[in-house]
Amino acid sequence: MRVVIAGGHGQIALRLTKLLSDDGHEVVGLVRNPDHLPDVADLGGQAAVLDLEEADTDAVAAILEGADVAIFAAGAGPGSGNDRKDTVDRGAAALFAEAAGQAGVRRHIQVGSMGADRVDELPPEESFTIYLRAKKAAEDDLRARDLDWTILRPGHLTNDRGTGLVKLADKTGRGEVTRDDVALVLAGLCTTTAAIGRTLELVAGDVPVADALENL
């Protein structure tokens, strides 16, 4: 299986690269900074230098050509300005999905954010609201496309060691989840057909990841 990950140097993406490559899969991580190439390679992946804020659809589709799965795990980050929340969390996500369709990559997984469905209840000008609004727009864009999509909304992310025990459902309620366990779920979603066309929430729980995926 060939998997292309947008946001390839992110904390979740690097964990996911190692999981997939250790399983014998070919992983390509899109990175903006050439200095990040060795970090991806050290975990068994390949890195392609591409800025999704500047690239066009053809350039992204060329990298996606021949892939089995496209995973959007990029984000502007908490320290970014409001403009970049739109150009990355919405714009880059839409570009990546468009390129996936152009390249014939049907399986598409997008990392969203818990609370995106409640954005209208939040103060409109706060930075976090603007971030969630961009995430929701990216989700709405993906749902309208003819792709085998899944949106995964993790809870509050932590760097604690993963437990492999989660709660994965259409609605979970708020909670925390480790980046290790998010990566583990993303790896499993690549081949979980029951997740296609669904928006799933993910928090820590008491169900092994393999069982949580099987029970969808």
UniProtKB/TrEMBL annotation:
Transmembrane segments: none annotated. Pfam families: NAD_binding_10. CDD domains: SDR_a5. InterPro entries: NAD(P)-bd_dom, NAD(P)-bd_dom_sf. Residues 7-190 form the NAD(P)-binding domain. Gene3D superfamilies: NAD(P)-binding Rossmann-like Domain. PANTHER family: FLAVIN REDUCTASE-RELATED, UPF0659 PROTEIN YMR090W. This is SDR family oxidoreductase. It comes from Kribbella sandramycini.
